[in-house]
Amino acid sequence: MNTDVYIVGGKKMSAIYDLNKGFLYSINQYTKNLIDHIVSNKIKHLSAIEKEACEFLLKNNLLIVSENKHEKKSIKELKISYPWQFSWIEVTRKCNLSCIFCYEMSDYSCQENMSFESLKFAVSNLLAAKISKIQFIGGEPLLLNGTLQEMISYCKNKFAFIEVYTNGTLIDEKWCKFFKENDINVALSIHSYIPEEHDRVVNCKGAHRLVSKATNLLDEYNIKYRIATIKNKSCIIGEPTDESTYKLCPKGPKVTGRSQLSQYNYEMFLNKIITKNTFQQQLNKKSVQIAVSGTRCFLKNIYIATDLTVYPCVMERRYNYGNLAQKPLTEMMHDEFRLSNKDSIEGCRECEYRYACFSCRPDANGKGLYEKPWYCSYNPETGVWQEPRDMFNSLLKVRT
Length: 400
Prior knowledge:
- Helix content is about 30%, strand content about 15%.
- The protein contains twelve helices and 13 strands.
- The strands form three sheets. The chain has an eight-stranded mixed sheet with strand order 8-7-6-5-4-9-10-11, with helices on one face. It has a three-stranded antiparallel sheet with strand order 1-2-3. A two-stranded antiparallel sheet has the order 12-13.
- The model has no long low-confidence stretch (mean pLDDT about 95).
């Protein structure tokens, strides 16, 4: 096998990962066995069909001619250690909105807040783990007012990047001056260009007017910000107006928390589903390396809740690494769950595409921690892809 070319076996089929050209080839077990025999010098005479296969493999530099004997390579040789790089810090679960797709299930009745002493303790753990980027998140962090400003000021010179995720309704000139003076980035949510549509999905009349005013202020103060947009089948995104200073790039909701599959229509599902066409895209060696090394997002990110419990992700609450009050963050970095890849996932461990396939673990649609993605249409045991329309109808029927 050429350098950076690997075979990954599945239950029914196998795949060749060509990380030089970024190509992924689907092959049957006969072809896999043929390559294994050729590489190990266990075959001397080839049939006409086998010669044709070898010519293809040589022409595309998947196999190369060598005078020396080589051991069969495993894609697992790409595995490396990744340090945590980023942490969400949940400073409150209270929110002045009640979005229909909130993964946190926050609203104004939630009372949990992180104390300033807990924040300092969390920061000391983050610094010990050499995490350089953080985001303050809620709930709605700006509800903490001066306490949040005190927290940000404490962190300002300790991290290379600080961002505040907000629904934008509370941003005013006072906040913009503070963000500018402290070089704080902002992330906020806008779900439609049409005020009534946005207000309806966040359950607050006038919210769109307030967040639109916030974007104007952020522009005026030249503060870096980005916008997240969650698409919903009942929400019309609309078109930008002359007053719109931003561009919306809607994505389907993660089916967790308040979000339900019923918020999807078939068009949204088609943008989500894993199909054969998913693997027509060019392979990225770094992405494959991450997929071999562990659970993709969990390798780099953590989420610290108000009570100092550490979760793998802002949306993943089915599993935690422990609580900082009982266990240092540096010890949690070696957790088996963080370092497990799709070889641990039921329905994925026998799939030949498992290192080329990205899926969001928390986006579970009520499924278990180790079950395959609900939007995957492939059955590795049969090598057959399910028709999208049939799959969508079946999923809706199950949820109903």
